[in-house]
C-alpha cells in the first residue's frame, strides 16, 4: 500500500536514508525539514510504501515540482529508498508508479532524477522502468552559512 508520509515515519526514513542512500543527518534537523516539506504538499510529493499486513514502512519516495524557463515542468525525484529486505518485490516500482500517477493528474510532462555514478543496480532499476540516461554531470555545492 502507498500512503502519505507522516511525521511519525521519521525514524524509519532516517534509517532508510542512512542504510540505503548513505546519508546521515541530525534527527532534530530532519524533523524540522520533514515538517516543512509536509506543509508544502503542492510542491513536494512524499509517499511511503507500507506492508499491508503489519504496517511496516518498506520504502519511500520524495519528489518536487521542477520548473524551468527552458523546459516543460517535471517532477524531480530527490529520494527513492527501499529497505534491503523488500528489494526485488515491487516496492520501488509501486512508488515510481504512484509518482507517475501524481504527475499525470497534474499534467506534469515527466520525471527526472540524479543517481550517483556508482549505483549501477539503481541505474538498471530506472532504465527498466522507462527512464533514459540523458547526460552525466558533476555536482557542485557552496555553503553560504
From TrEMBL:
Residues 1-145 form the N-acetyltransferase domain. One of its GO terms (molecular function) is acyltransferase activity, transferring groups other than amino-acyl groups. PROSITE patterns: GNAT. Keywords: Acyltransferase, Transferase. This is Histone acetyltransferase HPA2.
Amino acid at each position: 500500500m502507498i500512503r502519505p508520509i507522516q511525521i511519525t515515519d521519521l525514524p524509519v526514513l532516517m534509517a532508510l536514508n542512512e542504510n540505503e542512500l548513505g546519508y546521515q543527518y541530525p534527527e532534530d534537523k530532519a524533523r524540522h525539514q520533514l515538517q516543512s516539506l509536509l506543509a508544502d504538499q503542492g510542491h513536494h510529493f512524499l509517499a511511503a510504501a507500507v506492508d499491508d499486513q503489519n504496517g511496516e514502512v518498506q520504502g519511500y519516495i520524495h519528489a518536487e515540482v521542477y520548473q524551468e524557463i527552458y523546459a516543460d515542468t517535471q517532477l524531480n525525484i530527490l529520494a527513492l529508498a527501499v529497505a534491503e529486505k523488500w528489494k526485488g518485490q515491487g516496492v520501488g516500482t509501486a512508488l515510481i508508479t504512484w509518482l507517475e500517477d501524481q504527475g499525470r493528474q497534474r499534467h506534469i510532462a515527466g520525471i527526472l532524477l540524479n543517481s550517483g555514478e556508482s549505483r549501477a543496480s539503481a541505474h538498471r532499476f530506472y532504465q527498466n522502468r522507462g527512464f533514459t540516461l540523458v547526460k552525466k554531470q558533476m555536482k557542485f555545492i557552496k555553503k553560504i552559512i
